[in-house]
Amino acid sequence: MMKKLFISSTLLFSLSVAGFWLAAALSPESVGQTAVAAPADKRYSLQDVAKHTSPGDCWMSINGQVYDFTAYLPGHPADPAVIQPWCGKDASEAYRTKTRGRPHSPYADTLLPKYRIGELTAK
Amino acid sequence: MKPQRWLPSALCLALPLAGMAWAWPTGLSAWRSASILSAWAGCGALLASLVLMVRDPRLAAALGGLDSLYRWHHRSGTVGYSLLLIHPLALAADALDESPRVAWQTLSPLAQDWPEWLGWLGLLLLMAGLASTFMPHLPYRRWRALHYLLGLGVLLGLAHLWAILGGSLGVLGAIGIALAALGWRLVVSDFGALARPYRVKAVRHPATDLVEVTLAPCAATLAATPGQFVLAAFGDGEGFHGCREFHPFTVSGIGPGGVLKLDIKALGPCTRHLQGLTHGVLLRLEGPFGDFLAAAGDGPQLWLAGGIGIAPFLAVLRSRLPARPTHLIHLFRNADDAGFSDEIQALAARTPNLSFVPVASGDSPPELGPLLAAVPGLAGREAWLCGPPGLNTAASAALREAGVPAEAIHFESFEFR
Questions:
Q1: Which ranges of chain B have pLDDT less than 50?
Q2: What are the tens digits of pLDDT across the range B25-36?
Q3: Which CATH class is domain B301-411?
Q4: Cβ neighbours around B363 below 10 Å, total
Q5: Which residues form the domain of A75?
Q6: Which of B43, B162, B173, B221 could form a disulfide with B217 if both were Cys (CB 3.0 to 4.6 A apart)?
């Protein structure tokens, strides 16, 4: 019984992984094309960002870009207490180090454009 | 204390449920919720599996025996692994709304970083370790080494959890349970930190490829009763170097002052090496385990032994002659394997309650039908079986066919892989 469960679950898993790879390989679109949906000419200051500090309205600036993470917050893998304090702030350093000296993954980088709403002004 | 046989299964259910309750997602998509819940349910099942592999005599007695614990250890480990497989797939499925390419990037280790690599490595080690578990013909030492991969896989999975979620209460609790169970198993069980020292007092060879050793305690004794087994790790002595790994052996005799007899059949590299045991060899014993024959009723008995499965019945007969009608059938291949027939015949001659039927069945499976048909009042007897799994299964089926109720048929699986 357990042997059958092990074999069938491993087989299904392998087939599913292969299926995801095949679907990506056959997909004509590129990640960049779908992800960059925000207008590039919108400009916000840190004061603008600081007005959006709650989980229900959460903006952050990262590396000169401004993001609205309100829709993303529930999906962030870490404890909400890790990311929510950065709402309304510049989180460039936190994004680079995850507060523990290690950067976010390349996959996380691909998610950012989806939530970008504009550029950060110098002042 | 009465064994709580429901506790292992309850633990296998409670830990996954506790994990899911602790991490219960709100406001997330269905796939993302499924990913989180499968991860925590799988983690809980693997933790239950680790707890159930702790080999402690008191714990085993309280929870219904070592074979029951190992059975649930296997079930919970396999179910936990299967649940964990859902975790990355559900995460990828959640990203399918975005695009198939984003879904693949969610899954592909090439697009991830070391916290995710820890998870993947843990999963692959679990896969390799479990695959070896289902290879019964793998040599024991290779099987055991591959089985350790499972423990390492669980630890890497927990490191993945810690790297992603940080040191929250649930994560630290899971790591604490895993480290405590693995530490106990490695230090106390496998290293034998609490094992009792014994010394080989006498050696004899009652049959081909069979050695009977009489063991005397060097310090505190093990309080074994007939029907129980111990785990023995033989060390060194004059002209003998032991394999030092713990193997289970049923006690075949119990003497005053904690003296024990073990009969060791050459079935693998270590037990073959033990055929050369000499007087004075030091060993360590863990146990006792098991409750075979402990619940025998007051009615007539049928004892059916295959090969070295005669050991628990021998232990009873060497301690006392049966007070109720007992019919003992001993099946073995050839006359050279008989071993104890003369000793049991002599005991049977001293009491009308014991009838003994030794049967050399050769290399073909024994014909159980005629043997059982010759047992007087078979349907009214309580049957105790001790032999290879195939014999136990075949004999159980034959006994039920002959009218013996299922609840009157008892055997221990004695399968520890």
A1: none
A2: 877 889 989 999
A3: alpha beta
A4: 6
A5: 36-120
A6: B221
